[in-house]
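Continuing from the previous page...

OK, I double-checked the sequence for DUF6357 family protein against my notes and this is the correct one:
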Amino acid sequence: MSETELIPTKGKPGWCAGVVRVDGKLMYSFPVASGHIDRSFSFEITNDHLQILQEDEERFYFLFAVMHETHQLPPYPTEKMREEIFDTILFANKATVSKFLTHQDARHLAHGGVSNIVRLTLGWEGNLPQPDNWFKS
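Thanks. Re-ran it with the corrected sequence; updated structure tokens here:
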């Protein structure tokens, strides 16, 4: 029988991403509602990823927004693309992250969905992120 432990992060309880430790492995998990079907996805992460997810609320929700949008419909990101998403959002400087998020938000399938998830989850009522700076802190 596997052992599962919920790991605290900056995420708020409810419909959101989370981190669990399963048999010693850290797993980033998130739900995706895609019209007629709800799914959930899980990927192994490192302690370095976890540290940022525990310390930086904006990056936590930026990652959730992009992962949610890129997993709405197949084709889903490859492992290499997923690593780029995680590493860019969690470790890059703010200017690089803002440019990456603006690009993701403008993609045809996202049609502003990334910025909308960020606005809703961070409580930025009526204030969409600025293309050159998605960070409020």
